[in-house]
Structures are given as C-alpha cells and as structure tokens.
Amino acid sequence: MKVLLIGNGGREHALAWKLSASPRVTALFVAPGNPGTAQVADNVEMDITKPADVIRFIKINAIDLVVIGPENPLADGLTDKLSAEGVKVFGPTKAGAQIESDKWFAKELMKHQSVPTAEARSFTDPKVAEEFVKARNQPCVVKATGLAMGKGVTVCHRISDALEAIDRVMRRKDFGAAGERVVIEEMLIGPEVSIFALVSGRSIYVMETAQDHNCLLYTSDAADE
Hey, do 2-94 and 100-186 end up sharing a CATH topology, with the first three levels equal? Predict the structure, then answer.
C-alpha cells in the first residue's frame, strides 16, 4: 500500500513513524514533511493548499491512501475533494472538521446534544464583548473561534487580561480571520483530560487518554480587577 501523509509538524512525524512500521505500507510519502519524517519516509515538496497539486501527485504515484494531519486542510475540505476523485482518505470531511475549526459551532452542537460544557457567549463586536466581561466580573476564557494554530485561547483570571485578549484577537487581528468572532467562556477549574477516538459511521474506537501540562501563567493570589 502506498500512503501519502499530509503535514509537516510533530503530529505528522509521529504518524509517519507508526505508518512506516506497518508491513502493509510499501511506500510512504509526506508532503511537505520535516527532518523527522525524512528519516522514515520520502518528503515531497508540495503546496498542500492546492488540491489540484495533491491530486496530481496521487494519480502519478498511484497512492492508495491519504492521511491528513493538520486542521487547516481538513477545514478547507481537502478530504471532500480527494474523496470526490475516488481517493481513500483518513480524515474528517469539511463538515466534520467544523467541530475543530469553529469553536462556537462546537459549543452549539454540544448544547444541542446535551453534552456538558462550560457556559459561553459569542461576540462579533469587540466593544460588546468587553462590556460583557466587565458586567460579568468573573474569571473567564477568551477564544478566537477559528483555527489559530493552538494559540487562540487565553485563560483570564483578571478583567484586564480578558480585555487585552479581546483587543489582540478582534482589533489587532493577531490571528487574522480566526478572530472575527470570539467565544467568552466560564473558567472551569480542575484537571484537563483529552479523550481520543476513531470514528467511522456509527463505529467508535476509543484510544488512550492524554493530558496537557501547561505552564503556570498566573500566581494563585491573582485577583479580579
């Protein structure tokens, strides 16, 4: 089986490492890849934002399976475009990826399906968002709703922190179009655990859990202003 892996991050390095160990994989390409993936696969110089280039490579090299790692190509519908060409793809469709690419959509989906989640409001006007933060006068979490490479979430123990986050995201456009809308969410205290699962139709395979250990940003005596 010939496999094409899309992406160039640490996630793709881990995927390439495991894929290369499979006896069923006869050739493994990574586009564009990184020095780590080059140790276990053939890196390919390719603009993965251009589906036509990806499809051309797939057809020329008779690729049997495409694995998409990063969120951006998934949010842009690369899975849909490859599937329309008859290519087998591991990765959610554009509609499925919306759970990750649009945080407000994810909140609304959780509410609709009665999935427990922190209370939240969304805003497209920074002034209204700031007024809400001041009126609420509680620690909160400010999130750019779109994809921001893992940088779009700010935990705010003080009102001033929240106001600064809103300004950075919505006025200064630190994350571009990802910050056109923000979600302001109640702060939940406690351990954070991620649960991963592979889903195909109505079949679900739950994998091992994982936990982030992020650095401490504020001292315990930080108070609201």
Answer: no
CATH 3.40.50.20 fits 2-94, yes or no: yes
- CB–CB of 48/37 below 8 Å? no
Residue 65, SS3 per DSSP: strand
Answer yes or no: are the C-beta atoms of 62 and 55 closer than 8 Å: no
Partners of 66 in the β-ladder = 4, 89
* Homologous superfamily in CATH for domain 100-186: ATP-grasp fold, A domain (3.30.1490.20)
What length does the chain have? 225
- The residues that bridge with 5 in the sheet, in sequence order, are 30, 67
How far, in Å, CA of 171 to CA of 45, rounded?
Answer: 36
| Annotated domain spans of the chain | 2-94, 100-186
Task: Output the CA angle 189-192-196, nearest 5 degrees.
Answer: 150
> What is the distance, to the nearest Å, from the Cα of residue 204 to the centroid of all Cα atoms in its chain?
20
CA dihedral 85, 98, 34, 46 (to 10 degrees): 40
β-bridge pairing 65-68 and 89-90: parallel
pLDDT tens string 44-73: 999 999 999 999 999 999 999 999 999 999
pTM: 0.84
Q: Which residue, among 122, 138, 134, 124, has the nearest Cα to 183 in the 3D structure? A: 122
